[in-house]
Amino acid sequence: MSETEAVVNLKPDIEDLVPSEASARHSAGDPANASSFPKVLRRRLENFFSDRHISPKADRSMWGKIALGLAVLAGSWIALYVFNPDSWKFVAVYLLGGLAQTFLMLNIAHDSNHNAISPLPSVNKALNYVFDLCGINSYMWRILHHRGHHSCINLHGEDDALTGRRIFRFTPHEPRAPWQRFQHIYALFFYALFSLDYVFLRDFECFFFPSHGYLKRTKHPVREYAILFAGKGFYFTYMLILPVLLLGKSLLLVALAFVLTHIIVGLTVSLVFQTTHTVDSTYFPSSRSDFDNGVYHIFATTADYATSNPLVAWLVGGLNHHIVHHLCPFVCHTHYGSLTRIVKQTAEEYGVPYRQNPTMTRAIVHHLILLKRLGSEA
Prior knowledge:
Number of strands: 2
Helix content: 55-70%
Strand order of the largest sheet: 1-2
Strand content: under 5%
Low-confidence stretches: 1-34
Structural class: mainly alpha
Mean pLDDT: 90
Radius of gyration: 21 Å
Number of helices: 18
Number of domains: 2
């Protein structure tokens, strides 16, 4: 079976925590026969690669992005130790490393998490450790992202992305708290803390105090516990301890640079993802039975933004082409632009609503509109 036969994951295997690409190939067949639109869409997306004799995995531009991201991250830290800049210059170079981390997570770690970079699992696995390099456990993120999101988009009680911790109400099926009437006002503040929460709390909570049923039922390998602590230790060492011990920087200065870095990472990653599902035009199903086909579920719960802006796509790892991402999770994001044009055309032909915002700014506005509405309505 060719790589292109796995382009569209029409029905994720929700029994597995992380569906393999082979399982996606197997499960994509039957649902496509239930409706002409999914069947035609799948064939057109697959034909894009087979007709051009190209791989759905990483192309030259993707490998260039990988090299650039890693070079900037390494270069920023080499510059810190070679030149030992003072005060604000130290913070500036430190923040450059933070920008590189953001770029790597969105562009490299996310794709490798979906085995979208290489047909070789070992290559994807190695690149997936970029998450650990950035302080986030790659194993747990993989579970939460696949089982806790891709298999249950916008589904209350299952989609991890809708977990608001009582601070936010992201779905109309969640009980409303009085303070959430202000959630559209305080949202950006808490989004800025997103990566700090992940680094210091969330990973440990998911390992040792899980709230999701599928995490409670999972027996994690001992090796993953070791990687959790080793990864956190390595991250805190090079981000916090070494600049103080080897460069003689004050703990206050390093802590300032560290927090500013995470504000950038947290705001960026939160807004890139939140604007694709939690906007005022998307649907929030009450159960899996709301749709008899996974393709319609994706179209109803997902919105694209800025798809005509190649710079946005380059910076955010193609995640603005989010419908294609959910249809083709095993395809490298550098192909998304072409695939989105196929999706738009096919959806228009079959009268299937295609949700999009023309710019990322408009997507953010519509996300905040949804938060305001959910915070006000019972």
